[in-house]
């Protein structure tokens, strides 16, 4: 085992190192199941998560009403906020609405805000920076930037991230851009806590200095991500690589055949952790062919589903 950790920053990550982008459970009638959400949050923290993102993209935030978002924040904070950091997925492509919902999230007790790049309206980089700065000025909470051009339609440039990182409340980046050069530039020029936003890239991004992962697959494999992330921090590449390979078919099951929230809910239901796999339109259940492929991947990873 190496004597020094691969990540060289001496500071403790603000939001933890293994985070799940948590699904929002629904009842059979489509209403939010807050009791199931609390139980799921407890399960995830028990299995190794030290942070949760509540009602982000995987939490189907785009089809939740504001009052549902806020009640989800309060529910998860009450359930595990004393044991894990809770981030609110409370920003949209509307700056004023983002501020309003984020202030409500702050009142609910969250520890930070996940600020996504505004989607659909495609602002300039200057517009994105102004959007983030307006939210931070209003809420005065630590934020994690979320760079996911596949969803938002535009990427945060490394220059924009570096500029935003000068604000002391910008403490982290969820990197779902799959642009290793951009990530390397950010790591070399900021002190941000960078998290892999692509489950399968956790090991290589941590090799460059990322602190951990914000994962969908961690719904069903949090303990294995904990092994991988802790091993990378300890400089134990052999253990981390073994966990990375063992996670590969599970990641493929969750992330390759249907939208991640849809698959995660089905697997959690198969495992008995959720009472159903209900999602809200426009999301729909996987086809029987997709479900069988998911089961095949899980069996490849040693699971019996």
Automatic annotation (TrEMBL):
Record keywords, A-Z: Amino-acid biosynthesis, Cytoplasm, Diaminopimelate biosynthesis, Lyase, Lysine biosynthesis, Schiff base
UniProt pathway: Amino-acid biosynthesis; L-lysine biosynthesis via DAP pathway; (S)-tetrahydrodipicolinate from L-aspartate: step 3/4
Site (Part of a proton relay during catalysis): 57, 120
The enzyme's E.C. designation: 4.3.3.7
GO CC annotation: cytosol
CDD domains linked to this entry: DHDPS
Protein's GO biological process: diaminopimelate biosynthetic process; lysine biosynthetic process via diaminopimelate
EC category: lyase
Active site: 146, 174
GO MF terms held by the record: 4-hydroxy-tetrahydrodipicolinate synthase activity
PROSITE patterns in the record: DHDPS_2
Cited function: Catalyzes the condensation of (S)-aspartate-beta-semialdehyde [(S)-ASA] and pyruvate to 4-hydroxy-tetrahydrodipicolinate (HTPA).
Protein family per UniProt: Belongs to the DapA family.
Name recorded for this polypeptide: 4-hydroxy-tetrahydrodipicolinate synthase
Gene: dapA
């Amino acid at each position: 085992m190496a004597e020094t950790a691969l990540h060289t920053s001496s500071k403790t990550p603000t939001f933890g190192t293994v985070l799940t982008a948590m699904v929002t459970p629904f009842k059979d009638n489509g209403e939010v199941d807050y009791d199931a959400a609390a139980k799921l949050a407890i399960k995830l923290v028990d299995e190794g998560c030290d942070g949760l993102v509540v009602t982000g993209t995987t939490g189907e935030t785009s089809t939740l009403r504001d009052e549902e978002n806020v009640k989800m924040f309060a529910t998860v904070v009450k359930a595990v906020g004393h044991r894990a950091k809770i981030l609110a997925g409370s920003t949209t492509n509307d700056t004023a609405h983002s501020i309003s919902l984020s202030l409500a999230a702050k009142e609910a007790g969250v520890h930070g805000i996940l600020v996504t790049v505004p989607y659909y309206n495609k602002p300039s980089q200057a517009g994105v920076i102004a959007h983030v700065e307006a939210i931070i000025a209003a809420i005065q909470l630590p934020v994690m930037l979320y760079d996911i051009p596949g969803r938002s339609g535009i990427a945060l440039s490394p220059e924009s991230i570096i500029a935003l990182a000068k604000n002391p409340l910008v403490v982290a980046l969820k990197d779902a851009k799959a642009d290793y050069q951009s990530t390397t530039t950010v790591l070399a020029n900021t002190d941000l806590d960078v998290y892999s936003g692509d489950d399968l890239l956790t090991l290589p991004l941590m090799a460059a200095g990322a602190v951990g992962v914000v994962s969908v697959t961690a719904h069903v494999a949090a303990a294995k991500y904990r092994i991988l992330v802790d091993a990378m921090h300890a400089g134990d590449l052999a253990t981390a690589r073994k966990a990375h390979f063992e996670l590969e078919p599970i990641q493929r099951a969750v992330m390759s055949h249907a939208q991640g929230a849809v698959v995660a809910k089905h697997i959690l239901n198969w495992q008995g952790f959720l009472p159903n796999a209900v999602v809200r339109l426009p999301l729909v259940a996987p086809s029987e062919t997709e479900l069988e492929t998911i089961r095949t991947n899980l069996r490849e990873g040693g699971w019996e589903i």
